Each structure stands twice: as structure tokens, then as C-alpha cells.
């Protein structure tokens, strides 16, 4: 299970800055891990779905979040999510580029360029995003961010970096994306 770290808190801060005073119907926390973001979404959403592919994370989420308005689903991105529209989708993806010598860790590595899982997510998310819905997600300067932005334009997303934080070895970004009308 992915324990909250700088990226989790950066995304949490972005959620708080933009949504804490609003009430929304449906939100989704993709790659929920510990559930820290899902819990925050539940503060202002009527219903939250927390999604993770990892069995240990799903078991933790079901135990931690029972008796709440958060549903927990085991899924590889949207593969097990019923077709509904979300006003807000948050994703702290695995975003590090995976080298040949790196060990397998689905919580860290987003593919050879570090953006492959994020791109697959964004392509699938189009079917689940409400007309005025927003996606907030994390990216790293260690991955191919410029290529990510080119691909997002091709997918018909409008986007902006809404938060940026420098750490010793990388810059972390929070993107806000929505589908162009």
C-alpha cells in the first residue's frame, strides 16, 4: 500500500484550495492507497468511490472506510467502475520512469517514460467525467511531462498546472484538467 508522501499532501492541498467550500455529487479517488484523499473528498461530496488495483490497499480501504459514504472498488483504472459521471476525479498515479534495473512496484513506476499509466487513465477518464467535471492529478519532472502535455492536447483536454513544489531531486506538479467543450 502506498503511504501518503509529499505528492499525496500536495494533491490534498489542491483539493482543499479548490473544492472544500463546494458541494459536489460524485467524486472518485483513483489509486486511493491509504484513502487519505477519499476521506477528504467525502467532506464535500455526496458519494465517493475509492479505487485501487492493489489487494492490500483495497482490504485496508474497506476496513478503514466502512460505514461511510465511500465505496471501495478493486479495479485496474476504470475497468471495474460502472458507467457514471463524476464531478471530480483525483489521481496520484505512479509517475516515475522505470529503468531496466528498477524493481517492480506498481505504486511508483508509471512506465518507461513515467507517463504511460497517466495517459491510459486520461483516455479512459473521458467516459466518466461529467460535462463540467475536473480531474486533478500529480506529475513529476522526472517523467516526460512535455510529452504528457502534448498527448493531453491530442485527447482534447484543457489543462493547467495549479500547484508546483520543488524537492531536492524533482519538481512535483498538480494538474487541473477538463474536457474541451
Which short descriptors sum up this protein?
about 180 residues; alpha/beta; Rossmann fold; seven-stranded mixed sheet; 5 helices; about 30% helix
Condensed summary:
The protein has 181 residues and is α/β, with parallel strands linked by helices.
Question: Topology, pairings included?
Answer:
Layout: H1 6-19, E1 24-30, H2 36-41, E2 45-52, H3 55-64, E3 70-74, E4 86-91, H4 116-125, E5 129-140, H5 145-154, E6 157-167, E7 170-179
Parallel strand pairs: 1-2, 1-4, 2-3, 4-5
Antiparallel strand pairs: 5-7, 6-7
What does the model show?
The protein is of the alpha/beta class and 181 residues long. It has a single domain (22-179), classed as Vaccinia Virus protein VP39 (Rossmann fold, 3-Layer(aba) Sandwich). The chain is 28% helix and 33% strand. The protein has five helices and seven strands, in the order H-E-H-E-H-E-E-H-E-H-E-E. It has helices at residues 6-19, 36-41, 55-64, 116-125, 145-154, and strands spanning 24-30, 45-52, 70-74, 86-91, 129-140, 157-167, 170-179. Strands 3-2-1-4-5-7-6 form a seven-stranded mixed beta sheet, with helices on both faces. Helix 2 (36-41) links the parallel strand 1 and strand 2. It is globular, with a radius of gyration of 15 Å. The mean pLDDT is 88.
Q: Which shape, going by the Cα principal axes?
A: globular
Placed side by side, the strands forming the largest sheet appear as: 3-2-1-4-5-7-6
CATH topology label: Rossmann fold
Helix content: 25-40%
> Any low-confidence stretches, pLDDT <50, length ≥5?
none
Mean pLDDT, all residues: 88
Question: What is the CATH architecture descriptor?
Answer: 3-Layer(aba) Sandwich
What is the percentage of strand-forming residues? 25-35%
Question: Which CATH class is shown?
Answer: Alpha Beta
Biggest sheet statistics:
7 strands, mixed
Class by SSE composition: alpha/beta
Oligomerization status of the protein chains = single chain
Q: Write down the Rg.
A: 15 Å
The number of distinct β-strands equals 7
Specify the number of helices: 5
- Helix and strand run: HEHEHEEHEHEE
- Total domains: 1
